[in-house]
């Protein structure tokens, strides 16, 4: 199952520089771990916003939730999930 996931990051104003840095490092480690499994296919920054658009190919909604909720920033993101499937008129089958 393929999901497009948009994550809008909302860091608390009260966090100091060290705390932000620590979260960002752990976020990178965790998301790169999942990207290396091949399940997290794309990770793109949304231009001009502290947001990303990701594409994940997972077995189930439970697995998607496992991945997203493992991110250190999970409690600090608004996350929108959209399940997608092939369009019958698409001519390119090789994007993923
Ligand atoms: O978009 C961000 O910076 C938050 C994030 C999610 C996965 C990741 O590596 O960073």
From TrEMBL:
Domain Muconolactone isomerase: 1-89
Claim: Nucleus is one of the keywords in the record: no
InterPro entries: Dimeric_a/b-barrel, MLI_dom, Muconolactone_d_Isoase
Tree of life domain: Bacteria
Single GO MF annotation: muconolactone delta-isomerase activity
Coiled coil: none
Keyword Endoplasmic reticulum among UniProt keywords: no
The enzyme's E.C. designation: 5.3.3.4
GO biological process, one term: beta-ketoadipate pathway
Pathway: Aromatic compound metabolism; beta-ketoadipate pathway; 5-oxo-4,5-dihydro-2-furylacetate from catechol: step 3/3
Keywords: Aromatic hydrocarbons catabolism, Isomerase
Catalysed reaction, written as an equation: (S)-muconolactone = (4,5-dihydro-5-oxofuran-2-yl)-acetate
A Pfam family of this chain: MIase
Complexes and interactors: Homodecamer.
Family assignment from sequence similarity: Belongs to the muconolactone Delta-isomerase family.
NCBIfam families associated with the record: muco_delta
Name of the featured protein: Muconolactone Delta-isomerase
Lineage of source species: Bacteria, Pseudomonadati, Bacteroidota, Flavobacteriia, Flavobacteriales
């Amino acid at each position: 199952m393929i999901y497009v996931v948009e994550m809008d990051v909302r860091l608390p104003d009260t966090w100091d520089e060290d705390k932000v840095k620590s979260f960002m490092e752990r976020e990178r480690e965790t998301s790169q771990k999942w990207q290396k499994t091949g399940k997290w296919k794309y990770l793109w920054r949304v231009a001009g916003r502290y947001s990303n658009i990701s594409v994940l190919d997972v077995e189930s909604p439970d697995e998607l939730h496992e991945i997203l909720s493992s991110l250190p920033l999970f409690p600090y993101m608004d996350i929108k999930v959209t399940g997608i499937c092939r369009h019958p008129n698409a001519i390119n089958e090789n994007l993923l």
